[in-house]
Design goal:
With 314 residues, the protein is an alpha/beta fold. The protein has 2 domains: 227 residues, TIM Barrel (Alpha-Beta Barrel); 67 residues, no CATH class. Helix content is 42%, strand content 15%. It has an 8-stranded parallel β-sheet with strand order 1-9-8-6-5-4-3-2. A 3-stranded antiparallel β-sheet has the order 7-11-10, with helices on one face. Helix 2 runs parallel beside helix 3, helix 3 runs parallel beside helix 4 and helix 6 packs parallel to helix 7. The longest helix is centred in the last third of the chain and has 18 residues. The protein binds flavin mononucleotide. Flavin mononucleotide binds next to strand 3, strand 9 and helix 9. The site of flavin mononucleotide has 30 residues, from strand 3, strand 9 and helix 9.
């Protein structure tokens, strides 16, 4: 039995990462209906909007789903209360200290998973009492770790340190990638970029098209010392890099950044002035597909590759 399918009561150990402006109830419920675990991304939602998405998700699927809560955004207390009131059973926290909310959530019967980018923080999350960790490598879309550890090195190192279930993220978009992560020690995988380019993603069509046109080298991490984030190199990225190089005040950066830029880029489709978060693996995503087809393709490749392994030779 797989530890991740068992923990969440799902069929396949595939999690759709919470993604601001991409993962509303339509994507989350489609992933859960396909046998994975869908996550509503609370990071881009006002509390009332989150409540609405949770309620719609409950209607759209009778399978388990969860909510991703990046702790760097405002209204966290209100968001946590809504999650509890609405009876959500699974929460993935990220971008913050796992000690802050884990015991409170668990005291309400919620399964808690925390996203980390190093073995040190994986251990801290385990100590805080989480049920599993997502170890996310530097190639991932969105916010990254300062240590720049890539998935290929991170997974076995985290595996060496922790005893709770381990979910690999960053650079996984195929069945082969999933199998490789599991060979390295992961019990399951979390994919973001691949689902951002799905039919059910709430991202603007312009952004989805840009994802499938993205090639190797088209993304870079900026704000490295402050809040590292991997973006497509558009005008907004260049403006940000230029300002960052001048050692600006936090206020000046906040003014240029803000949540509004992420909305502008990914939700409203402004490819020039907007912030476009995506992982390096976008270079391997060539088509926008419905979630059920993505599952079919990934799982078929996983099985086929697994069966071929015994014939690998040198
Ligand atoms: C557009 C986008 C938005 C994201 N937003 C969040 C978020 O709100 N919270 C979070 O924990 N991770 C966020 N992530 C990270 C994903 O949940 C996931 O861990 C990551 O995408 C995995 O790497 P991959 O993109 O290589 O698949 C985001 C990623 C992308 C691409």
């Amino acid at each position: 039995m797989n530890k991740i399918t068992q923990l969440f009561g799902i069929k396949y150990p595939i999690i759709q990462g919470g993604m601001i402006w991409n993962s509303g109830y339509k994507l989350a419920s489609a992933v859960s209906n396909a046998g994975g675990l869908g996550l509503i991304g609370a990071g881009s939602m006002y509390p009332d909007v989150l409540r609405e998405h949770i309620q719609k998700c409950k209607k759209a699927t009778n399978k388990p789903f969860g909510v991703n809560v990046p702790m760097l955004y405002p209204n966290i207390e209100e968001i946590i209360q809504i999650i509890i009131d609405e009876g959500v059973k699974i929460v993935f926290t990220s971008a913050g200290n796992p000690k802050t909310w884990t015991s409170h959530l668990k005291s309400h019967g919620i399964t808690v998973v925390h996203v980390v980018s190093s073995s040190k923080f994986a251990l801290k999350a385990q100590e805080a009492g989480v049920d599993a960790v997502v170890a996310e490598g530097f190639e991932a879309g969105g916010h990254n770790g300062r240590e720049e550890t890539t998935t290929f090195t991170l997974i076995p190192m985290v595996k060496e340190q922790i005893s709770i279930p381990l979910i690999a993220a960053g650079g996984i978009a195929t069945g082969k990638g999933m199998l490789a992560a599991m060979i390295l020690g992961a019990d399951g995988v979390q994919m973001g970029s691949r689902f951002a380019a799905s039919v059910e993603s709430s991202a603007h069509e312009n952004f989805k098209k840009t994802i499938i046109e993205t090639r190797e080298g088209d993304t870079l991490v900026t704000l490295k010392e402050l809040a590292p984030v991997r973006l497509i190199k558009n005008k907004f990225f260049n403006d940000l890099q230029e300002l960052y190089a001048k050692c600006p005040s936090t206020e000046a950066l906040k003014e240029l950044l803000g949540r509004a830029r992420a909305k502008k880029g990914m939700f409203e489709g402004d490819l020039i002035e907007g912030e476009l978060e995506i992982g390096q693996i976008a270079g391997l995503i060539h088509e926008i597909k419905p979630v059920d087809e993505i599952f079919e393709i990934v799982l078929k490749e996983f099985e086929e590759t697994k069966n071929k392994i015994s014939s690998f030779s040198f």
